[in-house]
Amino acid sequence: MQMRPLVLRRASLIKRILTTHRHYSTRFGYAHSRCLVFSRFGQPEKVLKLHSYSIPPPYDDIINVRFIASPINPADINQIEGVYPEKPEFTLGLGTGDKSAVPGNEGLVEIVSCGSKVNPSIRPGQWAIMSGPNFGTWRTYAQAKESNLIMIPDKEGISPVQAATVSVNPSTAYRMLKDFAGLEPGEYFVQNAANSGVGRSAIQIGRLWGLKSINIVRDRPDIDKLKEELISLGGTEVITETEAKDKRHMAKITGGQPVKLALNCVGGESATNLARILGYNGHLVTYGAMSKLPFSVPASALIFKNIHCHGFWISAWSKENDAAKSQMIRDILGWIRDGEFKDIPYETTKWSEDTRLETLMEPVKRGISEYSGRKGIFMMEDD
Amino acid sequence: MQMRPLVLRRASLIKRILTTHRHYSTRFGYAHSRCLVFSRFGQPEKVLKLHSYSIPPPYDDIINVRFIASPINPADINQIEGVYPEKPEFTLGLGTGDKSAVPGNEGLVEIVSCGSKVNPSIRPGQWAIMSGPNFGTWRTYAQAKESNLIMIPDKEGISPVQAATVSVNPSTAYRMLKDFAGLEPGEYFVQNAANSGVGRSAIQIGRLWGLKSINIVRDRPDIDKLKEELISLGGTEVITETEAKDKRHMAKITGGQPVKLALNCVGGESATNLARILGYNGHLVTYGAMSKLPFSVPASALIFKNIHCHGFWISAWSKENDAAKSQMIRDILGWIRDGEFKDIPYETTKWSEDTRLETLMEPVKRGISEYSGRKGIFMMEDD
User: Fold this and answer.
1) What's the longest Cα–Cα distance across chain B?
2) Which class is A169-315 in CATH?
């Protein structure tokens, strides 16, 4: 009976500091972070809890950051379920009874305050995104180090959502188009799940690099509308899975020009068909398995057509390519700023001081069921 | 009724020239070549015929060669069936009524005589093998150009069978071990069909290069004898397909050391299991499909283990790598000469002036049914 008033008093104190000094307040006192946490792997509805903890002022190389926007990616949900190979660190440092971790891998932060040994070019008010996975981005405040962050040098013309979503989907598309097949302007690539976040990014980056794209989407009633939309983003051709299986249709599209790269997010028959569409020396890059089906590669395609199959995982790539990642993020943000790169469809959920667990769970649940729907994004209110 | 004596007389004349002057005779007259031919794709028993034709003396850059030994490879049979992407040239140059081709891609020849513009380092009596596919090696004499041949500079210590079989099986193993995974001494590779010609070659080349091999063979009653034999060739471990599926058994073998390369000649579940055995960044190279089953690659292995799948086809490689091929042949023949490289099991069929079609068809028929049995080799009699 003693505890409750004490907690309330402390929360209210922190709230007052935050409200009075806005986020700079943390330079002088404790910040109050609200976060989703989980202490064991399982279905998000069962294992996620809402938790609050205090963050002390930064010292030495510590940087206090405020989250502005954190996307909900399929990988985040797989990570909570425990079926993702990248595991977060479970810690008692959040003040939870059991060792817990904060979910979320992608996010945009604002620098709030810096310890005395932080690089002086990093200043309050600047934006940054996570340099790698596992930071735990589904929270309102956190402490970071410079190595956790990629600073965004110029936020002019960039929306919070655009900055927050740059490091997974557009980055995956960028690397797959650049790193596997040595594509030159005028050459073809093909992709399934072309309406996904990565798919829409690949269409646009392909257009910017002068590549021709064959974009395969699932058969659906409103196909003409979707075709029109993806063509307007810069797709060369948009076809259904059924059309993609028709050899003559494919030959008509390419005029016999070989397709050198295929991007596969689906698996199953759709992926096997990509191997068929590829030309001699082609590369098939898998970055997802939406159908949850493995795919067969005919030995003849490997041996006689010299097809190569690879996988791509942005998390693993990011860990080993700091400099290239920063350059890539600058490229993509540059295109966004110039109006050359349109957002993927998204839906935001406001996250303020008093947002309840149920509200935060809504986009998470949608993320489980709708892999190719609108991306959910937590938008943290600057309260 | 007129034809028969004429043909007999001519054959007898040629025979006399050949017998008197042995093969040098062709410098002064016509050689008499006997060959298998086919004028349409189909089952070898149905489409192969025995044919004789005359070969004029060589002029300019022409080299007359006598075949010493020509292997019967699975690819040769697939080529006759028309299911092999590499097609021979069908020509009227052999004197057949219909356009015909000579089957056989691999073979050892002896130089018989050279035209005036042939490189003078090429001299009668020297040995050579085919530089690429499609020459048509199932015959006794032929005309070639220097570009068709890889000269064997020193035949000392090399048997005709060894020289004749060097360019497909040992060469395929050599390239797959060298070109895909950057294997260093002490590192592991794994292969299925370890008892095949390529498999036995890979075991031995692996031993010579200091690599550790895990050799998977089909479950069979006389497994211990086969294990002993392959270990004696230099295999590190020999296990059955059943044992290879047991994760704990595999971990015990490698002691947790990652397997960086897998060679797949089988397909189906056996190949999928190779992908499971491979460690992070591993390469799976397919060079055959003995089971005739395609194989599935789990997307997780591609994405999270960064497995790469390739195919390897020695015919395509040979066309683009003249210099590297010559060096490789020298390496392998050097090992053979030094007693470091043992023959794969084989069975010869003598081919002399009067050998009948039925006799020549026997190893071809065996080649259709026994992919992993003894390799059949035509041995041409120097008559």
Assistant:
1) 78
2) alpha beta
